[in-house]
Amino acid sequence: MPDVLDPTLSARLKRDDAGLVAAVIQQHDTGEVLMVGWMDDDAVRRTLTEGRVTFWSRSRKEYWRKGDTSGHAQYVKAASIDCDGDALLVQVDQVGAACHTGARTCFVAGGDLGAVVGERDPQDDGAPHATPQDRDQQDEENR
Amino acid sequence: MPDVLDPTLSARLKRDDAGLVAAVIQQHDTGEVLMVGWMDDDAVRRTLTEGRVTFWSRSRKEYWRKGDTSGHAQYVKAASIDCDGDALLVQVDQVGAACHTGARTCFVAGGDLGAVVGERDPQDDGAPHATPQDRDQQDEENR
C-alpha cells in the first residue's frame, strides 16, 4: 500500500487551519448519518486503503482507528469527496454503536433541536430566482 | 422570533477557531447526504427558527440562505446536534440540485474516491476488544 496520499487527491483537499477535512460517516445501507470526524491527509489515505475508517483526534493529536478500543469498527464501503474538497462522505458498515455513549449515532445521542419545520411552496419547481447558477456557492468554491 | 441563539444550545456548541460548526445536510426522505456547510451561532439560530437553511460563507464572510439566488432552497424538516457539539445534522426537503454544479449532491459532483472496501469479520459481534467504552471517542468529547 502507498504510504503517501495520492498527490492528485491531496491537491484537491481544502484543509482547515489545523490541516483537517470533515468526514461524514454514513451507514451504507440504511442511510443513517452516524457521526462526523476529522481527517488529515494520512487519515484519509489510511481510510481509503485499509478498509477501516481512521480519524485524526483533535484532542489527543493522534490517529484513531475507529473500533480498535471499543470494537465498534467502521468497514468502508465507499468514499467520495465534495465539490470544493473540504468534506468527505464515507459510507460504512458500522459494527454496533457509532457513538461512545452507546447510541447508534452521535446525533441520536446529542438530540433533536426542535427546529421550526419549513414547507416548500407547491409552486416552487426550483427554477432560479435570479441567475441560472448558484452564485453563492460558486463563490464559496473559489475561496 | 428570538434574535439570539438559545443560550443552552450556544453553551453546547464546540466551535472551530473561526467560530463555526459543521452542518451535514441530508435529504429527509431518501437519506442522501447532500452537502456539508458551516454555521456560526446566528446561522444556527436562523436555520432552527426560519424553516430554511442558512450557512455562514467562509469565503465571503456573510450569511448565505441557501436558494435565495439559485432557487434551490433547503426546507428544514429536523435538526439535531452530535454528542460533542461540533456538528449538526439538518434534514431537509431540497428543491432541485444541492450543488452549484447542478449535481443533486456535492459528493456526486466531487466524485467517488475508489476506496478499498472492508469486510466485517462474520464473527465480529461488536463486543469490546479492550474496554466496554470507546475510550478514544470519550477522550475526544472531553477536549
- Mean pLDDT of chain A comes to 89
Q: What is the rounded distance between the termini of chain A?
A: 33 Å
The helix tally of chain A amounts to: 4
Kindly state the percentage of residues in helix of chain A.
10-25%
The CATH topology of chain A: Ubiquitin-like (UB roll)
What is the global morphology of chain A? globular
The amount of beta strand of chain A, in percent, is 25-35%
Q: Which structural class should the secondary elements of chain A be placed in?
A: alpha+beta
Elements of chain A, N to C (H/E): HEEHEEEEHH
Biggest pleated-sheet summary of chain A: 4 strands, mixed
Looking at the overall shape, the CATH architecture of chain A is Roll
- In which order are the strands of the major sheet of chain A placed? 2-1-6-5
The CATH class of chain A is identified as Alpha Beta
Give the quaternary arrangement of the chains.
homodimer
Total strands of chain A: the figure is: 6
Largest interface: A-B, 91 and 91 residues
Domain Phosphoribosyl-AMP cyclohydrolase (chains A, B): 35-107
Catalytic activity (chains A, B): 1-(5-phospho-beta-D-ribosyl)-ATP + H2O = 1-(5-phospho-beta-D-ribosyl)-5'-AMP + diphosphate + H(+); 1-(5-phospho-beta-D-ribosyl)-5'-AMP + H2O = 1-(5-phospho-beta-D-ribosyl)-5-[(5-phospho-beta-D-ribosylamino)methylideneamino]imidazole-4-carboxamide
Subcellular location (chains A, B): Cytoplasm
Organism (chains A, B): Promicromonospora sukumoe
